[in-house]
Structure formats: C-alpha cells, structure tokens
Amino acid sequence: MEKFSGYSDDSTSETSNSMPFASASGSPVENHSLSVGYRSLTEGRTDTRNHQGLSPRNYLLAAKGGSSPRIQETRIHGLPQYQAGFAKSMMVPQPLFSETIWGSNRLGNGESFQGSSLQPGAWSFVSNFNSLSGSILDDRTGSAGSNLGGIDYSVVQNQGEVRNARTFLGLLQGDGFVKYCSDKDGSRTLNGLLRLRNPEITREIYKKVFALSSSRFPIVFDLMLDQYGWHVFAELIDSLNYQQLRLITYEITKDLHLFTALAIHTHGSNSIKKIIRVLSRSSLISFVTNNLCAAFYLIMTNRIGLYVVSECLNHLRAEDNKLLYEAAISCCLDLAIDHDGSIALIRVINTIQGLQRYRLLDILSTNAVFLSQDPEGNYVIQKVLSLDNPIFTHLVCYQLRGYYAAISLQKGGSHIVEKCLGTEWKSWVIEDFLSNSNTLLHVARDEFGNYVIQKALKVTKKSDSPLYQKLLLRLRPHLSILRSGYGRNVFNLITGGQSVKKL
C-alpha cells in the first residue's frame, strides 16, 4: 500500500498571475491616494502557520534577531548536515507600515507594533542598475486591461504614456508601494504594467523592490510573503534580464535563515517555486539549490517546504539536482521516519536515477527491519517493494527473516509482509510462521495479522506449494478458536464457511 500524503502537489499551487483588471474612475492621484489610505493590513491567509507553529512574518523577522531558527552545520563524509531548532520565546508582530501612514502604532484589533525583537541588519542597497535591454523570458504575452487616470495600459506605446505610467509609479514609495502591491486591485494593475515588458516601467518597479520597508527588510521579502504581492513578484521575475535576475536571486538567497523562512511559508514557497521555473535552464539556479541543500532536512520535513524541493526534482536537469539527491541520501533514514519527510523521500525515489538511486535504495533496504516497524518508515519500504526491483526486493525479504511474525501484528508492517508473500521469496515468510504453532495462531487471530495468514494460504494454494498443506496442518487443530473474533476470516477461508462438525 503506497502512502498518501492527504494533500496533493496542488495544495500550495500558485494562483494564476493572470488577473482581470477593473477600471478606475476619477483622477489617478485621487484614486490611488484612497487606495493607499484605506487599504487593510494583509499578510496572506490569517490562519497560515509554518510547520513549527510560528506566524510567517514573525518567523521572517526572527531571522535577523530574537528567536531565530538555528541551523548548525556538521559534516558526515564531507557532506554538510544541518540541524535546526527554535528558541522558546514569544514573538511580537513587527509594524509593516510606518506611523506616518497609519497615524497609530496599533493594529485595528488593539495589538501594538511596539516591542519587537527585530534587530535591523546591515542591508546593502543596490543602486547601480544595469541596462534593461532584452528580457530573459520576453514572450510579450498578456496585456493589461485597466484604465487608470484615463490611460489604457494595454496600449501604452508612446513616450508620453510611458512617462505618465512612471509618474504614477513615482507616487508609490516605500511602504506605500508595499501596500499597493498587497492590495488585490493594486496587484492587478502592477501585473498589467509588467506584462507590457516595457524596459522603463520594469526598471521603475525593479528599483522599488530593493528599497527598505519600515521593517528594515528589502521590499522584495514583503512581496514574496503577501497573498497578492507575490503575484507582482512572479510577474516581475518573468520581466527581468539576466543581470537583474542575478541581483534579485542573490538578494533572496544570501541569508539562509530568510530563505528558509520563505521556503516554508505558503506564499513565499510559491515565490521560490516561480524562481526555480524561471532559472531552470540558467546557472543562477545554483544559488537556490545550494540553500535548499544547506537547510535540506528542515525544508523537507515541512509540509509546505517539501513542495519547493519537489519543484526542483520535477523541473531541473539531473546535474542541477545532484547535490539535492546527495543531501537526500545522507539523511534518508531521518526523513523516512518523519511524516512529511517520508512523503518527500518517496518523491525523491520517484525521480532519482543512476548510481545515486542504487545507493539510496540500498540504504533503505538494508534498514528494512527498523523502517518496517516505524509508523512512517513502513511506507518507504512499501515503496521500495513496489518498484519490483529484484535486487532490492530480495534484500528487503532477506533482512526481514525472523521478524515477519512481529511485523505482521502492526498495521503498516502487515502490508509489507503481504507484499513479501507476493514475491519469489515468500517461503522465508511462511517458514517464520511455521517455526512455532503458537506464533501462527497468534498472528491468525490478530486484527492485522489475519490478513497476512489469508494471503499466505491463497498464494501457496495457487502455486500448489507443499507449504499450503503445512499451514493447514498447523491451523486445523485450532479451528474452534479461530471461528470467533478476527480469526473468523481465516476460519472461513479454510472451511469455506462450513462448521467444524461438518468437517
């Protein structure tokens, strides 16, 4: 039985960047002043939590100070291994916007912005921008359909209209720009402007995302974490040339803690997956994969973060994923016994190839006894057996000799034993049961074990094996005991539903 995660790859899938535009009336300054002035504070879904229970923004803020995730490097056979944890301390929300805009240092629910543990870091402002000629992904698809201040941005052609658009963007500075991107209609408008692939407009927006917000982080992080802002980020990534992509990728990946915070956040992970797709054929992808390797276990054992790694496995070339596969091999046993980690590991098994595949399956098969008795690890062994690779199927069956009876009494383990009974090494399983009459009876009466004994009777009878008669000889003296409880299934299989007296 294969393991089902309870959610699919689409559970954190991105909403389409193509959002319809609504027209605005009145002057551009008036309309956008209202939009900036009355926009509500939006941080994505209010119930969003990361795997460790911290709110997304607090986790991001903690990355620069206070209660931050600690990633400690050790090395095993020359490969970096990381352990991460969180200090036990209460996080206080940090203000997203300045008091000059809100007129207060409190949120609408009465909570204060004050008292944050954030310690401003030394961020470098990128002021030297390269030429914007030529976009790496300039397919000139999509168009804006919004009328803002009388300008139809779907047909911006002459320099005058471009200047008007740039003047409008000039009104959005710092936190005002963040607020506008975090608004549903504002996000649509900026997406439409970016789809024009106009170098001047793209440059204006690109410059703004490197500015610092009131939280003392580059605005790009605010966009990536926001439910509407990340759509602006995704469209911006599509509009940039190689040099611009290089700068923004470096900014996002230069701090491992911040990158990890993005990877395990709903909208942040969508943003990183977008970067992976855009950079899939570029050498810049190494910035991303190196960070994923550095925090591999933490990300792979997070129900959101594992989809970021899956994005690499599904879209990158084998050579680009080589380090990720090495990281998976090194911590495969730890991943196998974690709920989300086991799901992620099964996805690695589906894609890994060559010598790395052999090494991974060999480690898992050699540890079959340990993993078969683990509530999560048993699914990984089931996956290995389902591959029908004779080398590793034989290795698993061999390792489990002497443990089949004990494993049959467990929910997950019983499925493994049933799979082993379907192989050419089924005699090892049945010989374990026949070694002791009390063991065979105990398994036959068990909630899970009775299905294993049924499978043993069926496969040996079908193959006309002498082991079938041996099983019957051991079970017939106990039919009166088997006729009740979970053993009734075995009783009916042997007797065909007849009573003991008729037999």
UniProtKB/TrEMBL annotation:
Q: Where are the Pumilio repeats?
A: 432-474
Name any Gene Ontology BP term.
Answer: regulation of translation
The segments labelled Disordered in the record are: 1-32
Which domain of life does the UniProt lineage start with? Eukaryota
Polar residues composition bias: residue spans: 8-32
Q: Which SMART domains match?
A: Pumilio
Which residues belong to any copy of the PUM-HD domain? 150-498
Provide this UniProt record's keywords sorted from A to Z.
Answer: Repeat, RNA-binding, Translation regulation
**Record keywords: Zinc included?**
no
**InterPro entries reported for this sequence:** ARM-like (IPR011989), ARM-type_fold (IPR016024), PUM-HD (IPR033133), Pumilio_RNA-bd_rpt (IPR001313)
Q: What is this protein called?
A: PUM-HD domain-containing protein
Species of origin reads Dovyalis caffra
